[in-house]
Amino acid sequence: MIELQEGIQPEVDQQNQYAIVAITKHGVQLARNLHHNFIHSDVYYMSKFEQGDEEVKHIQLFSGSVRMLLPTLFKQYKGIILIISLGAVVRMIAPILKDKKTDPAVVVIDDRGENVISVLSGHLGGANQLTHEVAHVLNARPIITTASDVQKTIPVDLFGSRFGWEWDSSDKLTPVSASVVNEEHVAIVQESGETNWWHLDSPMPENLQIYPTIQAAIKAKPNAALVITHRILAKDEEQILDNGVLYRPKNVVIGMGCNRGTSAKEIENVIKETVHELKISIKSVKALCTIDLKKDEEGFLQVVSKYGWEFVYYHPDELNAQKIEAPSDTVFKYTGVYGVSEPAVRLYTGANQLELIKKKSGNTTISVALM
Question: Are 43 and 35 in contact (CB under 8 A)?
Fold first, then answer.
């Protein structure tokens, strides 16, 4: 827990680019809901609202005045989302403002989650676009007062962030963003992930062109590209990234069974080796599924905590009700099910065709499917 004291700069555990801060009971619930849907965020709220699962969810508690927390957050985060009244926020941040080129984006949400307000660094800092993204997640009203910041185009660094998409590398974010805002020819190729990413109330700008394949986009010779796929690109496709950003949607699900006491290292290595063999990015993994007998398996818990994956487990009756192409009498003898990894991943995804039906590796079995 962070204990805030005058004159002492607190240490925070920054893992993401955006911080969400709440100081009221209703604000805490809003922060938790937003954190669940806005993946690249760290949450901070007052310790008196502790709910017991903060360590698992990487939520940081603090005691004392939130005013003393803000200078540290200003230095470390690209954007700060405050569920605090606008007037209070203005008074608290006024002494720590430096320059519009370096100040983080600041967004305020009212205690009922009805309005999301762009407060600071709307242009360069991205607060206006962050406001739109947060408002969309909360089904709230975005409030932006800068008249010239209504280009209504794709924010390259935030593209798909509300779905949990991750970019492979930040190297090309700046030049690709320049191509987008300067209305140059930008190719968009989407092979997987959520398709409802255009949520503005105006048509997509004409300079943004959607292509069915990477090869088709390469042939069109765009100035820049946005590529959304879980797949590792082939060598002849990599040229699309000469001035392109590669996004990883969360659409890969791992089904897994293991012997009791299997180490986290072995589990992680099997997963990494398997997705590599399938030419799938580990950044696209969304969840790890298993049987409820393994809900306290320490190796599983450590791996899902490290990667931020969902951890889902099912009752034997649920697993036995699924199609199993590779049943095992041995597994049934010890668990009461004819399979763990295969039916678990089918149950989560609803997929008929799996990327990997089942592979036995050391102390584990693993199956892979796409959402």
Answer: yes
What is the number of other CB atoms lying within 10 angstroms of the CB of residue 238?
14
Task: Fill in the DSSP letter of residue 262.
Answer: -
Q: Does the domain formed by 164-248 have CATH 3.40.1390.40?
A: yes
pLDDT tens-digit series, residues 151-210: 677 878 778 888 889 999 888 988 998 898 888 999 999 999 999 998 777 888 999 999
Beta carbons of 335 and 260 less than 8 angstroms apart: no
| Domain residue limits, the chain | 2-143, 164-248, 252-370
For 108-146, letters b (16+ CB in 10 Å) and e give bbbeebebbbbbbbbeebbbbbbbbbbbbbbebebbbee
Give the torsion sign (CA, 13, 55, 85, 160). positive
Distance CA(346)–CA(344), nearest Å, equals: 5
Q: Is the pTM of this model over 0.70?
A: no
